[in-house]
Amino acid sequence: MLPQAADASEEMDYYLFNSTIGAYEHYRYIRGQFYKIGGDRYSNTQINNLIDTAVAGLGADDKRYYATYGKVTETINNEEVTQENMFSLYEVDKTDTDHSNPILVSRF
User: Fold this and answer.
1) Which of 22, 28, 36, 92 shows a CA-CA span of 20 to 30 A to 81?
2) pTM summary value
């Protein structure tokens, strides 16, 4: 069960097991609402809007951002979960030219 809005965080990923399909479903809390993330659920326009939301307000002079798109494998509750079609946005210090210390800012 997803948490109540008062307990939700835009910094967290939420995974719920769907026994009908036998897999975990990935959710994010974005601007006051939960969204199912990943897969081919969104149109190109919707993805662009989610990206715009994720990067709004970014751009501090001492930070740089880069993104990846594709397959992501994460460990959740000691179990490896792989998801396709994932957009990941990372933040790095501008002096970190080889991106050795990235911080995950958003993923959908």
Assistant:
1) 92
2) 0.46
